[in-house]
């Protein structure tokens, strides 16, 4: 394996996502390089209409600049049943243009007031480009939206998402439990399987 195929460039500026993916891949001989490591300190614009399109946009951005490397990107949406799948592709900016986690969670809790069905899922799409060929992997974790925020770990909507089979939010359960079952971990595990084939 040469240094290019040993390194995976991850098109993310999100330190939490980077940490989670590094943990899932830690037993494998790959070094995960982030946008920050590459000196890119801005977000790659997510202009797609779907998670799939946005994942492709982010990985293609890096693949055009680093054609010899494995490139991955990941786009996640929170899909709430009673909101017809919203926030979905606008998950990052549901509460306003600022990508503010507090505003986002506040809006979900507000929209669910009075609704009996609080079921929801996180859906992640991981895009992998190597030698010009793209493959995508999906990871889903089902659960429900809590009545109020709880917990200090994680990021984004973790304080209001209770994964199936648990009574506490991702933010209560903590990263070690989250990465055993999360949408992102499931997508990364499928990607790893394909690397090992
Ligand atoms: P993106 O995939 O970086 O565009 O993230 C979309 C939105 O989902 C952002 O508001 C993130 O904070 C949120 N998000 C992504 N992954 C997670 C997660 O694992 N837990 C909670 N929120 C997440």
Describe what this molecule looks like in 3D.
The protein has a single domain, classed as Maf protein, CATH 3.90.950. It has 197 residues and is an alpha/beta fold. The longest helix has 15 residues. It has 7 helices and 6 strands; from the N terminus they run αβαβαβαβββααα. Helix content is 33%, strand content 24%. The model has no long low-confidence stretch (mean pLDDT 95). It is globular and about 50 Å long. It has a 6-stranded mixed sheet, sandwiched between helices. The structure holds inosinic acid. The site of inosinic acid has 16 residues, from β3 and α4.
Keywords:
197 residues, Maf protein, six-stranded mixed β-sheet, binds inosinic acid
Quick recap of the structure?
This protein has 7 helices and 6 strands, in the order αβαβαβαβββααα.
